[in-house]
Specification:
Rossmann fold; 2 domains; six-stranded mixed sheet; 40% helix
Length: 353
């Protein structure tokens, strides 16, 4: 049972930082730091400075602050608070952050990958009925634990909640997806082919794979990775709700997304790609355009009930709204939620089987 009071009683990351009497230093530069500084201004939180990992410190400034090393901050301040402003998704960096958090007070306020608004208590209050609907459809204790921990992290910025609920892709494949050799798999946001190879390693074969990737640079890597494999269709296009032409930013990774300027890119819906063919499993990781991609899969979801893996962390309300969007198309699904090791609450996926 989801109880809103258990979340509203928590001290939010912004309340916590606002009340701090110790110096607050932002760890990291780039877009994450800029987002954090905007929210600091909004909540009237005064940062004392910025530091970065040693390899990024070159005696330069960022947003008006001289960028320091952690050792410099430690030498100059007896006690201070760290606000983490960058994402960490590989083991070495996660371990480094964990070590720092054991030595210093560390907070990582939640901000959406896309969109400027942070997740606040008011956000949960306004959307609590949606949250309850999704929570009540979750099919195992692990999913409910992940849902609870993600909400608590989003409010508090306490990364220990993420640590508490993380699992591995192998657990999801073995206990939820259970792929087999006869499946038709569609990978939306195939990047460099890593998730296709991951799928094949667990399925031990496949009938056909459609790998869809919009970014030209990523698509070349994808083509090289999957060169020589049979029955794989490589599609250089964005997953969308209809056949269209879009502008895509030139960056790769999370910088490759729909933009108001960039590279002209073809867009296709899953329904148009399949043209009436069946599908057994679809993965959606399309950098904030999951809603559009699901809409473009409507007929397939209604008629085939394929297994789905949907990233539910790119936008502020994805964890609430995307599952409800799917259930409106097909109410027969069982829902599972998993979070893979990552700071902040990225790599959180909803599975539909």
């Amino acid at each position: 049972m989801l109880n809103i009071n258990s979340y509203l009683s928590l001290t939010s990351s912004w309340e916590r930082l606002k009340a701090e009497t110790r110096p607050i230093f932002i760890y990291g530069m780039g877009d994450g730091c800029i987002k954090l500084l905007r929210q600091f201004e909004r909540f009237d939180i005064k940062p004392s400075g910025i530091f970065a990992s040693d390899e990024f410190v070159r005696g330069h400034s960022f947003e008006g602050f001289k960028v320091k090393r952690l050792s410099e901050v430690e030498k100059e301040n007896e006690d201070f608070v760290i606000a983490l402003a960058f994402a960490a998704g590989y083991e070495e960096l996660i371990n480094k952050i964990d070590a720092i958090s054991r030595k210093h007070t560390l907070v990582m306020p939640d901000t959406a990958v896309y969109g400027g608004e942070p997740f606040l208590k008011e956000t949960l209050t306004r959307n609590f009925e949606k949250a309850k609907c999704v929570f009540n459809r979750l099919c195992d204790d692990k999913s409910r634990e992940v849902f609870d921990c993600i909400l608590k992290y989003k409010i508090t910025g306490d990364i220990s909640y993420l640590k508490r609920c993380e699992t591995t892709p192998s657990e999801a494949y073995e206990n939820i997806l259970r792929p087999c050799k006869e499946e038709i798999y569609i990978d939306l946001g195939a990047y460099n082919g890593d998730t296709v190879l991951e799928y094949m390693s667990y399925s031990k074969g496949y009938e056909r794979i459609f790998a869809v990737e919009p970014n030209e640079r990523n698509f070349k890597k994808l083509s090289n990775t999957l060169d020589g494999y049979e029955n794989i269709s490589l599609i250089n296009a964005a997953a969308w709700d209809k056949e269209d032409t879009l502008l895509f930013s030139k960056g790769s990774g999370r910088q490759s997304r729909v933009s108001d300027r960039g590279v002209i890119t073809r867009a296709l819906s899953v329904d148009s790609i399949l043209s009436g063919q069946l599908a057994d499993y679809i993965k959606y990781d399309v950098e904030g355009e999951e809603e559009r991609a699901i809409k473009g899969s409507a007929n397939t979801i209604k008629e085939c009930s394929p297994k789905l893996c949907i990233s539910v962390y790119h936008r502020l309300l994805d964890m609430f709204e995307l599952p409800l969007q799917v259930l409106k198309l097909n109410d027969s699904y069982k829902l599972y939620l998993r979070h893979y090791p990552y700071y902040p609450a990225w790599e959180t996926n909803m599975f539909f089987v």
